[in-house]
Design a protein that fits this description.
Helix 5 links the parallel strand 11 and strand 12. The strands form 4 sheets. Strands 3, 4, 5, 6, 7, 13 and 14 form a 7-stranded mixed beta sheet that branches. Strands 10-11-12 form a 3-stranded parallel beta sheet, with helices on one face. It is of the alpha/beta class. It starts with a strand and ends in a 7-residue tail after the last strand. It has 7 helices and 14 strands. 20% of the residues lie in helices and 30% in strands.
């Protein structure tokens, strides 16, 4: 069987900006038969995420994710539907997901590495920081944020003081750099930084997580601010209950979902480039195959 896949065509360099041309689509032959314990799956959706920028380098700088190899298939989060199974707990028609899904139209996977998909918490004030007026309006008008700051147009320090006059207690940090320094400078004693990502630093040759400036590090210690890395792979045992809880909140209208969807495996590189430059609103995903009938 001939399928299409995306491979890493070139590396942007540790200090370079990724472009769509760093990826290449090609055809490959999938075996006609699967072995015991395996499943053949048709890919429905693939995810592109900021952490993948590190995987484009020869060395990711971490011990929990490996670099993509040149001319080898790229992988990441994905969802698909089983077309053939030789696994005792997975059957044709099951929807499955994996954090290491090859960027292919169809794949053969080890069934033991898949998760079968089954069918707000006390903050007094929530403030978001983003880069366009459209995103700010979305946060406050649809997603329940109390305020939103456009870091490209507004003075973040001033707006944050106005939005959080009592200071900041919890900071979910996805960006790093000057914005994070500004937020941390307004955090209270015994507050918490959840270090999820540092997208502003991914195109630079710096260690991960990037060190804080001496002044901000001193302030962090003085105020006893914790700064803990959030690694999703450390919480695999919570994936299933987490999905169930999120699904319940969504059904009850308590959780809003926003996605930017691009169609076609051939557009994986363009989707990645757009996501890295803020072109998406909500989660950036790529639809590989919408038809789910078997």
């Amino acid at each position: 069987m001939i399928v299409q896949r995306v491979v890493l065509n070139s590396r942007p360099g540790k200090n370079g900006n990724p472009v769509a041309e760093n990826f290449r689509m090609e055809e490959v032959c999938l075996p006609d038969n699967i072995n015991e314990g395996q499943v053949q799956v048709r890919t429905l959706y693939l995810s592109v995420d900021p952490y993948m920028r590190c995987r484009m380098n020869e060395d990711t700088g971490t011990d929990y994710i490996t670099p993509w190899q040149l001319s080898q298939v790229v992988d990441g989060g994905g969802i698909g539907i089983i077309e053939e199974s030789k696994h005792t707990n997975l059957t044709k028609g099951d929807f499955v997901t994996s954090f290491y899904w090859p960027w292919q139209t169809k794949v053969i996977l080890d069934g033991n590495n898949l998760e079968k998909i089954g069918h707000l918490l006390g903050c007094s004030r929530v403030v978001g920081i983003c880069g366009t007026h459209e995103k700010c309006v979305l946060l406050t008008s649809e997603l329940g944020f109390d305020a939103a700051i456009n870091y490209k147009k507004e003075n973040v320090a001033e707006q944050l003081r106005e939005s959080c006059p009592a200071g900041v207690d919890v900071y979910f940090d996805n960006v790093g750099g000057n914005i994070s320094d500004t937020v941390i400078s307004q955090m209270n004693e015994n507050s918490h930084i959840i270090l999820c990502g540092q997208i502003s630093q991914y195109n630079k040759d710096v260690p991960y997580p990037p060190p804080l400036s001496p002044a901000i590090e001193a302030l962090q210690k003085e105020r006893n601010i914790t700064r803990e890395r959030f690694l999703v792979l450390n919480y695999k045992d919570k994936f299933e209950p987490g999905i169930l809880q999120l699904s319940q909140w969504f059904k009850e209208g308590k959780l809003k979902i926003k996605e930017t969807v691009i169609n076609g495996l051939e557009n994986m590189g363009a989707a990645f480039q757009s996501m890295m430059t803020g072109g998406n609103i909500g989660k950036q995903i790529v639809c590989i195959s919408e038809e789910i009938s078997l």
